[in-house]
Design goal:
The protein has nine helices and five strands; from the N terminus they run βαβαααβαβαααβα. The protein is an alpha/beta fold. The chain has a single domain, classed as P-loop containing nucleotide triphosphate hydrolases (Rossmann fold), CATH 3.40.50. It is globular. The two termini are 15 Å apart. The model has no long low-confidence stretch (mean pLDDT 97). The structure holds adenosine monophosphate (AMP). The site of adenosine monophosphate (AMP) has 16 residues, from helix 2 and helix 3.
């Protein structure tokens, strides 16, 4: 069973690429953002707590997303592989994932990292706001906070995975097709 991480700043195109990857390779797409938005839409206690943080552009607590990921991996033992999208987002989450996967007989096979400069992150998020209507995509202060949270808490994962030798970078400022081709090349190795 393969375990891949789709990594990158908000707006880098992770969701768009994830859809195509799982279609082609039959992996299970696990987006912690999608799982949290589902909780919000259902109006669960967790969803209500998460909404406050998400709409401010803060991260939800590590334990919350770690628990979600563990449950999904444990409940899907018959898939070919997993594609994590938006997880891990902190060093603590990455360490928990590294400790968790061996319990399921696996490891992180590769980190597919989509790069995008800050100016474009902003543009892409505003563009997505018009299409998906996400509340955390519409408010300027929220977007800025998400970008700074990405730099302070999530970007350090790049050196974390570079040190482990499974980090692969893909230019995100390109067409959807070119980015997908570059990703497939790595997955087909
Ligand atoms: P995304 O759809 O990946 O952009 O996630 C939307 C929001 O959900 C983020 O801005 C965070 O508030 C929250 N979130 C998603 N994934 C995580 C995670 N791995 N750790 C903490 N918060 C997360």
């Amino acid at each position: 069973m393969k375990y891949y991480i789709l990594f990158g700043p908000p707006g880098a195109g992770k969701g768009t690429q994830a859809k195509q990857i799982v279609e082609k390779y039959n992996y299970l797409h696990l987006s912690t953002g999608d799982l949290l938005r589902h909780e919000m839409a259902e109006g669960t206690e967790l969803g209500k707590k998460a909404a406050e943080l998400i709409n401010r552009g803060d991260l939800v607590p590590d334990e919350v997303v770690e628990g979600m990921i563990r449950n999904k991996i444990a409940a899907n033992r018959d898939v070919k592989g997993f594609l994590f999208d938006g997880f891990p987002r902190t060093i603590a989450q990455a360490e928990v994932l590294d400790a968790m996967l061996p319990e399921f007989g696996g490891k992180v096979d590769a980190v597919l990292s989509l790069t995008l400069p800050d100016e474009l992150v902003y543009e892409r998020i505003l563009h997505r706001a018009m299409i998906e209507g996400r509340k955390d995509d519409t408010d300027r202060a929220t977007i800025e906070h998400r970008i700074s949270t990405y730099h302070s808490k999530t970007e350090p994962l790049i050196s974390y995975y570079k040190d482990k030798g499974n980090y692969r970078e893909i230019e995100g400022n390109d067409t959807i097709e070119h980015v997908f081709t570059a990703i497939c090349k790595i997955l087909d190795e």
